[in-house]
Amino acid sequence: MRRWVSFLSIATVLACATPVLAHPQHVPHSHAAEFAASGFEAGFVHPFGGLDHLLAMVAVGGLAVMFGGASHRRWVLPGSFVGGMLLGGVAGLMRLWAPGVELLIALSVLVLGSLLVGGGKLRIACLPAAIAMFGAAHGYAHGAEMPAIAAPWLYGAGFVTATAVLHGLGIAAGIGAARRPVLRLPLRLSGAAIAMAGLWMVWQVL
Question: How many structural domains compose the chain?
């Protein structure tokens, strides 16, 4: 059963990366499927409506296992991302000036995917701070794009929950790869696909 869960997790990561490369006409930060809900639903759907959010959050989960080592440290990177995301979300709600947010979001996909390809061999002391910065950029986009009728606290709870789900998916893939060497190559290939998607997004923003 665990083997199938691991395979399904990695396959989902790969599937998430594929649409970005298959649809070059897609705008990097387009959310066509946004719900006009008044709270939690709108926030929960938002990360799934943008491939930039989805890919970055899954990648953070995978990296959490590679860089975290012991199980109790695997929540450092996801926690850093969520913490930064909440701060960014408040800034987005307040419409504070934040130049280069779209570029930073695109760069986050490129960098996080590239780190997955590296397989966690690099030990970067400032990685949690970088993850928090990326989370703040994604959070700013969440807050700035909140529907006018949404209750902010419900909307925030929704996108935090969705983020946790996506982090969990990445963590499951990372654990599967750590336990079964045969799964490490698919995980790195998914990182390469995410990095390529990020490079394309950066090109679109520039």
Answer: 1
